Amino acid sequence: MKSREKLVIGKTRIDPGQVLDIRLKISETYTGDPIAMALRVVRAAKPGPTLFICAAIHGNEISGTGIVHELMFQKTLQLTKGTVILIPVVNIFGFETNQRNLPDRRDLNRFFPGNLKGSLASRIAAIFTREIVRKCDYGIDLHSAAQQRTNYPNVRGDFSLPAVKKIARAFGSELLVPNKGPMGSLRRSACRARCFTINVEAGAPSKMAPSVIEFGVQGVENVLIELGMLKGSPSKPLYQVQLEKTTWVRAQVGGILRFHILPGDLVESGQALATNYGILGKEQNILRSPVNGLVLGMATMPTVKPGEPVCHLGIPTTPLAKIRKSLKKPPLSSLHRKIRRQLASDISFVGR
Ligand SMILES: [Zn+2]
């Protein structure tokens, strides 16, 4: 465990029992002024694991910022041991302009572990690696879908690493996606540095949807309970399955889609996903599911060109019938229903 008595981030020392807000310089503006990443460090008096929770490494994926915020102002994390580092925004540049990438168009999440003498992206990644990753045992990296898409909440990670699998399962998402992450991604690089990190993907970009925030806050608390850092009993999902494969269904022709499915739906092979209409209303084709699976992600933009992604399907290792059984009559107030309702509001859905 990397937890130690002495924790210094930037030039600030944080002692056991302290809660400190820190501004860590990560870059500079054209005017030469510092650009700093805001973070809060919460340390219990008792030693234990150190975990970071970060958001908006893709600057427009702000649901994670909402999750970190909620953790900050709804309640103080009453840790029984260890340290939590809360980072509401990593990519300050992208956050300011509601863009995924940095001003040089680089995707920050492809430049880890970074290099202090490299590009803008590489330098920011290197500072994050040195100051955060190397001081943490675990990490939770919060994301949402890319522009014009939405994701049904899921947790991704390299499940061949038992520590990753442990916190991924504990988070309490219905869907687990085994995936090391692309080269240069924070989660992949952090795991190599033995900071066991998962990705949480939930909802649409440029939004802080209340149900997604509730899901994220609950998940973080579940992980802290699992690690013995927080008292309480974890919230369990209605079901939890691992996906063995995911696949995109793409538009065959240009047109306007009317959807027959919603995020989180279970779909049978051959089931209609969307009907593609020409601009004068003529039906052009029906896109059908090639597999028995789950709707993991969808386009929220109903206009498509040939080859554009329409629906991201996941194939669970558990038979659909078994999942259906667990989903029989979830209470109206359940988080499952709230998320389903909320994500559905972004889709031009015309019935199944
Ligand atoms: Zn992202």
Can you give a write-up of this model?
The structure is a single chain. The protein is of the alpha+beta class and 352 residues long. The chain folds into two domains: 7-226, Aminopeptidase (3-Layer(aba) Sandwich), CATH 3.40.630.10; 243-344, OB fold (Dihydrolipoamide Acetyltransferase, E2P) (Beta Barrel). It is built from eight helices and 18 strands. It has helices at 63-73, 92-97, 120-131, 162-171, 186-192, 210-226, 320-326, 335-344; strands spanning 7-9, 12-14, 19-28, 34-43, 50-55, 83-87, 138-143, 149-157, 175-178, 196-203, 241-250, 255-259, 266-267, 272-277, 283-288, 293-299, 303-304, 309-316. The strands form three sheets. A five-stranded mixed barrel has the order 8-9-11-18-16. Helix 1 crosses helix 6. The longest helix has 17 residues, at 210-226. It is globular. The structure holds zinc ion.
How many structurally independent domains?
2
Residue share in β-strands:
25-35%
Q: Tell me the CATH superfamily of the largest domain.
A: Zn peptidases
Would you list the SSEs in sequence order as H and E? EEEEEHEHHEEHEHEHEEEEEEEEHH
Structural class by SSE content: alpha+beta
Q: In angstroms, what is the radius of gyration?
A: 21 Å
How much helicity do the residues have?
10-25%
> Order of strands across the biggest sheet?
8-9-11-18-16
Sheet with the most strands, sense and barrel status: 5 strands, mixed, barrel
Low-confidence parts lasting 5 or more residues at pLDDT below 50? none
CATH fold group of the largest domain = Aminopeptidase
pLDDT averaged residue by residue: 96
Task: State the end-to-end CA separation.
Answer: 51 Å
CATH A-level architecture of the largest domain? 3-Layer(aba) Sandwich
Helices, by number, come to 8
3D shape: globular
User: What hetero molecules are in the model?
Assistant: zinc ion
Q: What is the total tally of β strands?
A: 18
Give the CATH level 1 class of the largest domain.
Alpha Beta
